Amino acid sequence: MVDLDQEDTAPTTLNMSAKKKELMSTAMKRTSEWIFSQEIPSDVTVQVAGVSVSLHKFPLVSKCGYIRKVVSESNDADVSVIVIPDAPGGAESFELAAKFCYGINFEINTENIAALRCVAEYLEMTEDYAVGSLVERTEAFLNEVALQSLAGAISVLHASENLLPIAEEVKLVGRCIDAIAYLACKESGNDIAISSTISNSKTVVDWWAEDLAVLRIDIFQRVLIAMIARGFKPYALGPVLMLYAQKALRGLEIFGKGRKKIEPRQEHEKRVVLETIVSLLPKEKNAMSVSFLTVLLRAAIYLETTIACRLDLEKRMALQLGQAVLDDLLIPAYSFTGDTLFDVDTVQRIMMNYLEYETDGSHFGYKEEDGYISPPLSDMERVGKLMESYLAEIASDRNLPVSKFIGLAELIPEQSRITEDGMYRAIDIYLKAHPTITDLERKKVCSLMDCQKLSREACAHAAQNDRLPVQTVVQVLYYEQQRLRDVMNGSMSSGTSPSISSRVNLYPPTDIHPVSDELSSLKRENEDLKLELVKMKMRLKEIERPSSAVPSAASSPMGIIVPSSDKPPLPRKSFMNSVSKKLGRLYPFGVPPSGAKARTRPSKDRRHSIS
């Protein structure tokens, strides 16, 4: 039997057992005293579960086939001691059976009916030996009272767990399960009422779901399977599984760093419970909350369940990733090896599953009218922002290698990133926490963001960020200045130029101003950027070698350094020196050639190049 809290309750259980045994001895003693009060001397002593009681052969033999066989088959003509080694329910149930033989009244209820039915079968108290036998009486109570209500059927089934295998032999377990399945479906009502449980299931099933939570996991599994076979909707079982999991996983420290050692037996029991619960989870989308799936996944990693169990939970989380929050992804790395603080590999697999669903529409068997509908952009945007927040959270971990950071960042879809501010923030945090990485690694990390999609605030910060490579800073300033020129030129030529509209949508300001105010603001920002470029020019001059060869600006046909139409000028020492000579007379970075298109995001190969 799965006893999840046995370690903590062992002393209490022993005390209760000793007290119960003492009470039973007292009860059996009272029965013996009642018998002696009839002034008929006892002629046999019955020993049951360490308790002895003096009785009479005649009433026992007349209604109990087991004792009749013992007396008739004994070599001793005058049997004085009868030992019943394995009576179901122990001395307590035998006392009730003995009272039945003597005709003493006692109460039959849902608490004792299971043990009474099993001991009646064990002692062969059937119609073959007496009319109105104990078997007949207990069967009548089961059919007419105990199995007519959910609470009664669950109570009898719970008591039957300690009476195996005889409870199975008399079909008590199976009948209880069938009764629970039938009554649960009846209680839940028709399909319309069941469908409403997807949003408000607590009001429908809570009162009996808590009762089911006391069952052993294998019995609990059989009950749910029987309910589904009876027509109960699988997704409506979500609250039942949640209540059972909360009870079963109580005591696991799954929210801290490292694994707290628990007893191997208890760990095995919890592992079996968790794997069974995962196998019973509904396949329907949104049947379980992401937060609950996260708790199960943390527990699965903590308890080292099967790989199939963990992968199943990861796929379920991926299907509902758009509903997750940052805390759902911050899964601790349960290890003592000094590795990363969080389980980055698990989150990376979840994100890969999400992208797979978005690409091929497999969606874990979930389809709408047998067709696939691509996730709305808003869902993609939520996932993109979520992953950028996750990157920023794990970036401060000094044990996080560059490869893992880059691998996870590359999974974030470009269409989910309206701006690159979130990615820039994560990159900046990572560079600050890892000052010792090589220049090549620094360039690879910075190549993850598209400088064209940074907001004005992010551009202003990046222009003064000493942690960024010089090439990245130059690209940031180039694209920002190009954007400002386009907006200014568009506003001067036509007050509502399409280019202005598109830029405003791409880089939304915090407030909406008239075009004249916007133009004035842009001019001020343009002057600020020129000042920053002058500062950068001075900084670059300081790091250049005096002996380096500097090509003349006359090498250009027009005597002007013209940026390429397909990529911005990159900072090489001689090239930047020539650029600095012209910055005082020209717009920053010169005038782009007519017809040049805005630079698109470099390909992956380009982003990882070192030039």
TrEMBL record:
<protein>
    <recommendedName>
        <fullName>NPH3 domain-containing protein</fullName>
    </recommendedName>
</protein>
<dbReference type="Pfam" id="PF00651">
    <property type="entry name" value="BTB"/>
</dbReference>
<comment type="pathway">
    <text>Protein modification; protein ubiquitination.</text>
</comment>
<feature type="compositionally biased region" description="Basic residues">
    <location>
        <begin position="598"/>
        <end position="611"/>
    </location>
</feature>
<feature type="region of interest" description="Disordered">
    <location>
        <begin position="547"/>
        <end position="611"/>
    </location>
</feature>
<dbReference type="Pfam" id="PF03000">
    <property type="entry name" value="NPH3"/>
</dbReference>
<dbReference type="InterPro" id="IPR011333">
    <property type="entry name" value="SKP1/BTB/POZ_sf"/>
</dbReference>
<keyword id="KW-0833">Ubl conjugation pathway</keyword>
<dbReference type="InterPro" id="IPR000210">
    <property type="entry name" value="BTB/POZ_dom"/>
</dbReference>
<comment type="similarity">
    <text>Belongs to the NPH3 family.</text>
</comment>
<feature type="domain" description="NPH3">
    <location>
        <begin position="206"/>
        <end position="483"/>
    </location>
</feature>
<dbReference type="InterPro" id="IPR027356">
    <property type="entry name" value="NPH3_dom"/>
</dbReference>
<dbReference type="GO" id="GO:0016567">
    <property type="term" value="P:protein ubiquitination"/>
</dbReference>
<feature type="domain" description="BTB">
    <location>
        <begin position="42"/>
        <end position="110"/>
    </location>
</feature>
<feature type="compositionally biased region" description="Low complexity">
    <location>
        <begin position="547"/>
        <end position="557"/>
    </location>
</feature>
<dbReference type="InterPro" id="IPR043454">
    <property type="entry name" value="NPH3/RPT2-like"/>
</dbReference>
